[in-house]
Amino acid sequence: MNIISALSILGLLLAAASAQKPQHCESPPLMSGGVSVMGSNGLFVSTGIISYDAFGQKIRVRNFGMVGNETFAVDQLMLFNEKVYYEIDWRKPSCKKRRLSTDFIPMQVPDDSQLMGQVVLGSSSSWGMGVLVNTWYGNLPGNGTYMSVYTEIGCIPMAFTGYTPASGWTTVSTFNWVLGITNPMDLFPPFFCAKSQLEDSEAPDTMFAALESLARKTENRK
């Protein structure tokens, strides 16, 4: 009887230990926050705000950045359900409407990623001094690799670093996330985009590729 009890207790302990191991997760479906990007091996840096809607498969990103001594601004709206990408210029104002061939990928820890470790950002000495995060890593297409950081509670994305031989290093940091969309109109194109014609060219694969493309254009004009 004692052996059976001991085995039962051991089974419960093993189950509890397994439950405490960080799990792959998906971020909340509606979020708004800030984002900073450094790409092309340091060619450009930018910071801005992002609205994320996994239900409607929409992402809006407004960024201000710098390439050398040159500055740029970009406002992007990606409507994955409609396969449409808008690049909005508020100075003119005008819109470029292009095909979006990329499928929507929710913010999540990919199933094939591996756990690197769990740490506290800040301090664990007292409540409110730090946040528990999990670091994951994996491979990217094109012989690349990545590392991402998500909070243990809530699965909130905090940082991403990726490398491919073609594009070099890209680092993304996010901050000031709130659950929900602070301005629902951010996920609709401005009124002056209504007359925009769909261009033949396809949109960049990701918002980061779009920022990199714009940065290279700015660099070429110098």
Q: How would you explain this protein's 3D organization?
A:
By secondary structure, this protein is an alpha+beta fold. Helices cover 15% and strands 47% of the residues. The chain has two helices and twelve strands, in the order αββββββββββββα. A twelve-stranded mixed β-sheet has the order 7-8-9-10-11-1-2-3-4-5-6-12. A hairpin with a 4-residue loop joins strand 1 and strand 2. The longest helix is centred in the first third of the chain and has 19 residues. The chain is globular and about 75 Å long. The C terminus is likely disordered.
Please render the helix and strand layout as text.
Blueprint lengths: L1 H19 L9 E10 L4 E10 L4 E10 L2 E10 L4 E6 L4 E6 L14 E9 L7 E11 L3 E8 L5 E8 L3 E12 L18 E5 L4 H15 L1
Parallel strand pairs: 6-12
Antiparallel strand pairs: 1-2, 1-11, 2-3, 3-4, 4-5, 5-6, 7-8, 8-9, 9-10, 10-11
Q: Roughly what percent helix? A: 10-25%
Classify the beta-strand content into a percent band. over 45%
Could you tell me the number of beta strands? 12
Mean pLDDT: 84
Q: Which structural category do the helix and sheet elements fall into? A: alpha+beta
**Form type:** globular
Note poorly predicted spans.
12-18, 214-222
Q: Secondary-structure element order, as H and E?
A: HEEEEEEEEEEEEH
**Rg from alpha-carbon coordinates:** 21 Å
**In angstroms, what separates the terminal alpha carbons?**
82 Å
DSSP summary: helix tally: 2
Largest sheet: 12 strands, mixed
Q: How do the strands line up in the largest sheet?
A: 7-8-9-10-11-1-2-3-4-5-6-12
